[in-house]
Amino acid sequence: MEKRHLLLLIHALFHTFPSALSQSFIGVNYGQVADNLPPPSVTAALLQSTTISKLRLYGVDPAVIQSFAGTNISLVIGVANADVASLASDPAAAASWVSANVFPYVGASSISIVSVGNEALDSGDSSLASNLLPAMQNLLYALSASTAASAVKVSTVHSMTVLSQSDPPSSGAFRPEFVDTLKGILSFLRDSGAPFMINPYPYFAYASDPRPDTLAFCLFQSNPGRVDGGSKLAYTNMFDAQVDAVRSAINALGFPEVEIVVAETGWPYKGDPDEVGASVDNAKAFVGNLVAHLRSLTGTPLMPGRSVDTYLFSLYDEDLKPGPTSERSFGLYRADQTMNYDAGLAKSVSTSNATASPPQSNATSDPTLQSPTAPPVGMTTGLTQPGGWCGPGATLQSAAEGGSLQPAVQCFSAVGSRAAIRLGHLFSCVALTLLMLTQ
Predict the structure, then answer these.
(1) How far lies 333's CA from each of 41, 51, 53, 203, 313, in Å?
(2) CB of 317 within 8 A of CB of 331?
(3) What are the residues whose beta carbons fall under 8 Å from the beta carbon of 380, sequence distance 6 or more?
(4) Phi, psi torsion values for 338, nearest 5 degrees
(5) How far is residue 68 from each of residues 47, 57, 61, 148, 414, measured CA to CA in Å?
(6) Element (H, E) at 174
(7) CA separation for the pair 322, 270 (Å, rounded)
(8) How do residues 12-70 score in pLDDT, each as one tens digit?
């Protein structure tokens, strides 16, 4: 067997087992478009005082990576869109990138994912679509050369505009021009055990339909809920609807085993006069209730009994970002490390004492038990262009959209049975690897 293929198989084997035992987590994005950020060591100390266990960087910052050595906070590091083409065309360039940006740190700092590009398919650079997968393949092969880096996964982050249809969640689909590219990427993610990373923002869904019932739906607050006329599943919040829309689109292409990671989601606490919904109260409610929802392990209607790994946006305000006031007002913390609002993330604050209002759970945690004819009281069926759903044509921002799935899609079971399946895959991989090594 060719050495390259064997190394890739061993790389997949290394992180099949850890993923079987993985726990849900709450991460945060560390944007650095600012001139007033504290030293990385201060940021590391701040995060250790919270329940946040993951940090996503948009590039590679050696000072930040080194500051998180020994903290048990894992890191996502990024490849710039401008570097994707060179990494795709030259395996040596990928090896050099990994040697400079991963190998020096993996012994002390925990790097979990290398994200190749950021929202590349929606960047306006059409060449990125054809270069994404080769760049990911070359980087994975380069990582496989080091045992210490063998657990590092390779993925890419997408905006929600990769979806063409999302109303209701069960009808979601990827845009036709991206289907072939995404099939290749999803095959790579499945084979290597890496997640599909997506950026859903209920805030922009509300901005496109600023009605009180939509706001409550987006903030996990009490609302009549909405029933998906295709799947007959009940939804009580926009986050679950958007995530399940993506789940549906992935399943429709035939990749139900690929996990989803929410790479960004958040709510601005301040905005311009015409930016509806941007307020401290709404930001506190959204983030606080989202955190409580994730901790509850309620899951989504299509993925009950587990939590989708989610990175909040963002750690600090970024005072140099262009655009409306909201762009500079997503931070959980100010540059002096004081809270913009309390979302219940401090270690000293228990989930039960969080100040945000409690999230509303879904009508049932098992889609197979959901009655197709008896929705919860106050809910209506059909979902014919309901207010708050992000359908095609929404132009406010990519994160305003969601995706969906076919009615007869495979549903995921709870964590235990998923882990058991993966253990079976592990032993199969072990047997296959040993067999190949003896040939």
Answers:
(1) 16, 14, 16, 19, 11
(2) yes
(3) 224, 226, 227
(4) -85, 150
(5) 10, 12, 11, 17, 32
(6) strand 173-174
(7) 15
(8) 444 444 433 334 589 999 999 999 999 999 999 999 999 999 999 999 999 999 999 99
Q: Which residues are catalytic?
A: 119, 264
How far is the C-alpha of 47 from the C-alpha of 30, rounded, in Å? Answer: 11
**Helix, strand, coil percent content, the chain, rounded in steps of 5:** 40, 15, 45
Residue 295 host element (H or E): helix 280-296
CB 16 within 8 A of CB 257: no
Angle between helices 91-101 and 127-143 (to 10 degrees): 60
Element (H or E) spanning 283, and its range? helix 280-296
What is the pTM for the complete model shown?
Answer: 0.78
